[in-house]
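New to this. Please check this fold:
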Amino acid sequence: MTQLKKRIQTAQVKASLAINKELILLYWEIGKEIANRQKLNKWGSSVIDHLAKDLRISFPDLKGFSRSNIFRMRAFYLSCQIVAQPARQFAVHDLPEAFLLIPWWHNVILMEKIPSLEERTWYAKKTVEESWSRNVLTMQIESNLFSRQGNAITNFHLTLPSPQSDLAQETMKDPYSFGFLNIFEKVKEKEIEKGLVDHIQNLLLELGNGFAFVGRQYPLTIEGTDYFLDLLFYNYKLKCFCIVELKTGEFQPEFAGKMNFYLSAVDDLIKQPSDQPTIGMILCKNKKKITVEYSLRNCKTPIGVSNYTTKVLDGLPAKLKESLPSDGEIEEHLSTIDFFD
């Protein structure tokens, strides 16, 4: 009975994915047809009004054929074109596969917020991998995750085998955004720890897919002396424990020595034979690149160092953001323009 239920669930997922893929392809093809006819026959935007009305009459039970959404279909097609190859016709196989695996409104968010096809494709793949909702996708874009992912200074390529080292590197961000804490900049490490645990769902989302929380101030007793790890996680994708040490000041070389001690202890006392080597993550308010690199170069355990901020990150500079019109102002302005007459 259990196997049968799993088979039904698997079939439901496959059917849902197939339906979504066909819907995205349909919207892409509608957008392509409109864009091509506008280019060849000088169609005006009024034609889209007539098309939207006709489709709603012909298919009254189907949603998604409003005037604004048909404009989005055209924009979706155009946003996926490869400008460097204008001589050939853009075919369906040129559409990144990830766009077919996420819902339409996720695609709309990507299209409206990110001009770069490369960056949109990256976010689409991450959405598939980590099952992001629209709200989470929007938050990750606004925090500029694309530029933060994989930027930590680490010694992973020296201490971990490939491809484990590459996966571990990609897992780490710089900086980490703890803007959800709503605390002042000058606080004690223990206050940040407590805030992160109190907002554990937000913390796990920021750390990324695969992290499971094990404990705060996790105790280790070594030769009668008690030591405490700030935060301990297990990452089921990396198949290893991850120690997170928080520092409210600038990175100091001795931080790496202490982390090396903790990593050796966890590998001996907690790590299972099937686990990969434990990874250390030192999160500081700031750091100096050369100082960190010298501190990690001859260290035999895998350690990464990143900054963190308790401010809300934004992908746009403040001055530029202030100068931009709101979404409502843009939509109102676009509704008065005929782009193709």
